[in-house]
Design goal:
This protein is of the alpha+beta class. It has 19 helices and 23 strands.
C-alpha cells in the first residue's frame, strides 16, 4: 500500500531525489537570465527600429539626395555678360571662349580702359556684401566674375547674366554617362554708351608718352564722348595673371583715372568763372577796364601778368573781352578783388566745384575750393588779398578735375546750363539752369572766340578749317566762312571758342601743367574738348594741338 504523499518527509528523501530538487532550482535561475536577455534584445531591436525609421522616413530624402549626388553632378553654365557698344553701335567689349568658359575681351585695349574697367573673380568681402541683399536666384558664388571698376562695376546689375546649369549622370569613377537635362543661362543686358570710338582713338594716340587726361562731351546734354586718362593700361591683362603684376607695379600709376580722379590747379581756364561771377554780381561790367601795369605789388609780394613776366610788355587798358582773349592776369586780379573771396567761392560752387558732378562711374574726386575758413582750419592762417588774387586766376590752393573744367566750359557753350556728365546713353534731362544773364554768356563766349582768333592765346586754332564736302554749307550758325579750293572737298572754316591755361603747381624746376578747353562751333556748339598735360608746359603750345586733332576728327567726318 502506497504512502500518501503528505507522509513523505524530507529526511526520508534519498540523495538522487535531492539532486533532482537541486536541478530544478538551477532551471529557475536559467529562466530568469533568459528573460533578461530577451528584454535586452527587445530594447536593442527597438533602438534599431527607431534609427531605421529615422533614416528611412525622417531623413530619407536627405540621404537619398546624398546617394543621388554620387551619381549626378551639376555643372555650371556661365552666362555671358552683356556686350558694351559706343554711340555708333561699335562693340567695345565682347565675350570670347576662354579657359573659364567665357571671358571678356576689351577690343581696343587701353583706349577705353578707365571708362570700361575690367572684371575679376568675386572676393569674399564682395560675396558677403552683395549676397546679403540679393534674392537667392541672383546670389554670387565663389569663382563668379564681377565688375571691378568702370562701367563693368557701375552697371554690374545690367551687364551681369544669370548662370544656367547642366545635370550629368556619372558612374562610380565619376565618368560621364549621360545628360539628364539643363537650365539655360540668361545672358546679361547689352548697353550703349555715349562714347565715340573714333575720337577716343585720336585721344589715345595724341597722349602717348604723356601724363594727363582728355574729356570731350556734348555741351547741351553732358554726354561724354571721350574720357581718356594717360598713361592707360590693357584691361585684358587681368585675364593673364603674369601681366597683372606689371600693371600694379608700374610707377606711372596707369590704373589711376586722371580724368575724374586727378585734381590740379586749373590755371587760367578758371578765369571763365571769375568773369561770370564778376559780371553777374555787378562787380565788373561790360565796359569796366583795368590798366595792365605789368606787376601789382603788395608789400613784399609781387603779382605779375604772364605777358610782362615772359616778354616785359604791358597791354594798356583791358576790358572783359580782351582780358579773356589775352588771358590778362592783372585784369582778373582786380576783378577778383572787386568780387571778393566769398562771392567768388559761391560762384565756384554754383559751377559744380568742390563737389562731385555725379558721372556714372566710381572714382570721381570733388577737388578743393579754398576760402578763409578752409585756410584757417587747414593751415591755421588768415586769408589775405594775395590769396584772392591767386584764386581769381586759378592758382593757389584751388584744385579741380579735368571733368570739372570741361563741365564749366559747357556752361558757356550750353547757354548757362550745368549738366551732369554721363556715359550711359539711356540717361537724359540731367541739366539745370544757373540763371546766368544772356549778356554775360555772350561776353564770355566772345572773349573765348577771340582767344582762338588772331591776337588771342590759342594760336594753334587760328582760322581752323576742315576739308569736308558733306557739311551743310548753308547753315551759317555752323560754318562761319567757306572757301573754294581746287581739291575735291571744300575747306570749311569753323569758328571756335577756347581758353588756355598754364598752371603752376610748386614744381622745383618750375614746370607747369598745360591746359586747353574749347567748344565749336561758337554758335550752336556740337562738341567741347578739355585737354590736360601734366608738367607739359604752356597750354597753347602743348594741349591745344591735341584738341585740334580731335576737332579735325569730329568735323572731318
Amino acid at each position: 500500500m502506497q504512502r500518501p504523499l503528505g507522509a513523505i518527509f524530507p529526511e526520508n528523501i534519498d540523495k538522487s531525489h535531492k539532486k533532482t530538487f537541486r536541478s530544478r532550482g538551477g532551471n529557475s535561475r536559467f529562466i530568469s537570465l533568459t528573460s533578461i536577455m530577451f528584454i535586452v534584445l527587445i530594447a536593442v531591436m527597438g533602438v534599431l527600429a527607431t534609427r531605421l525609421s529615422e533614416l528611412t522616413i525622417i531623413k530619407g530624402k536627405y540621404y537619398r539626395s546624398l546617394a543621388e549626388g554620387n551619381r549626378i553632378k551639376e555643372k555650371k553654365i556661365v552666362a555671358p555678360r552683356g556686350v558694351i557698344y559706343d554711340r555708333n553701335g561699335e562693340a567695345l567689349v565682347r565675350n570670347v571662349p576662354g579657359t573659364l568658359g567665357v571671358q571678356r575681351e576689351y577690343i581696343y585695349g587701353n583706349t577705353f580702359a578707365h571708362v570700361l574697367g575690367y572684371t575679376g573673380e568675386v572676393s569674399a568681402d564682395e560675396l558677403r556684401l552683395l549676397n546679403s541683399r540679393l534674392p537667392a536666384s541672383l546670389v554670387y558664388k565663389g569663382g563668379d566674375a564681377i565688375g571691378k571698376s568702370g562701367i563693368e562695376k557701375y552697371y554690374e546689375d545690367k551687364i551681369r547674366g544669370i548662370d544656367g546649369k547642366e545635370l550629368l549622370e556619372v558612374d562610380a569613377k565619376g565618368e560621364y554617362i549621360r545628360n539628364l537635362g539643363q537650365v539655360a543661362p540668361i545672358p546679361g543686358g547689352n548697353i550703349h554708351l555715349s562714347l565715340d570710338l573714333g575720337l577716343a582713338k585720336v585721344a589715345s594716340a595724341a597722349m602717348e608718352g604723356k601724363k594727363g587726361a582728355i574729356v570731350a562731351s556734348i555741351p547741351q546734354s553732358g554726354e561724354i564722348l571721350v574720357l581718356y586718362s594717360s598713361p592707360s593700361f590693357d584691361p585684358n591683362a587681368f585675364a593673364r595673371a603674369a601681366d597683372v603684376h606689371l600693371v600694379l607695379q608700374d610707377k606711372n600709376m596707369p590704373l589711376f583715372n586722371r580724368a575724374i580722379g586727378g585734381i590740379y590747379p586749373p590755371g587760367s581756364t578758371y578765369k571763365i568763372i571769375t568773369a561770370v561771377g564778376g559780371l553777374e554780381t555787378g562787380a565788373i561790367k561790360k565796359y569796366t577796364k583795368y590798366e595792365d601795369v605789368g606787376v601789382i605789388v603788395i608789400g613784399p609780394y609781387k603779382f605779375p601778368n604772364w605777358y610782362f613776366l615772359q616778354y616785359g610788355k604791358k597791354e594798356g587798358m583791358v576790358d572783359i573781352v580782351s582780358a579773356i582773349k589775352r588771358s590778362n592776369d592783372i585784369y582778373f586780379y582786380k576783378a577778383g578783388e572787386a568780387l571778393g573771396v566769398d562771392r567768388l567761392v559761391s560762384w565756384s560752387r554754383r559751377f559744380g566745384l568742390g563737389k562731385s558732378l555725379g558721372i556714372d562711374i566710381e572714382g570721381e574726386e570733388e577737388g578743393v575750393v579754398p576760402d578763409g575758413g578752409w585756410k584757417k582750419k587747414t593751415r591755421g592762417e588768415s586769408w589775405f588779398l594775395g590769396d584772392t588774387y591767386h584764386l581769381s586766376i586759378g592758382q593757389g590752393d584751388l584744385l579741380v578735375t579735368p571733368l570739372q573744367v570741361n563741365s564749366w566750359t559747357n556752361v558757356i557753350a550750353g547757354d548757362g546750363k550745368l549738366c551732369r556728365p554721363y556715359l550711359l546713353s539711356d540717361l537724359s534731362n540731367l541739366c539745370k539752369t544757373l540763371n546766368i544773364k544772356k549778356e554775360t554768356i555772350e561776353l564770355v563766349r566772345e572773349g573765348m572766340r577771340q582767344a582762338c582768333s588772331p591776337g588771342g592765346t590759342g594760336w594753334p586754332l587760328f582760322g581752323f578749317k576742315i576739308a569736308n564736302s558733306k557739311l551743310k554749307i548753308d547753315n551759317l550758325d555752323f560754318m562761319e566762312t567757306i572757301e573754294s579750293t581746287t581739291s575735291a572737298k571744300p575747306m570749311v572754316e569753323i569758328a571756335t571758342a577756347c581758353k588756355t591755361g598754364t598752371a603752376e603747381f610748386g614744381d622745383p624746376q618750375n614746370k607747369t601743367h598745360a591746359w586747353f578747353t574749347i567748344f565749336a562751333p561758337v554758335h550752336n556748339p556740337q562738341i567741347s574738348i578739355t585737354v590736360l598735360v601734366e608738367s607739359g608746359g604752356e597750354g597753347s603750345s602743348v594741349a591745344a594741338p591735341i584738341a585740334k586733332k580731335m576737332l579735325e576728327e569730329w568735323f572731318g567726318r
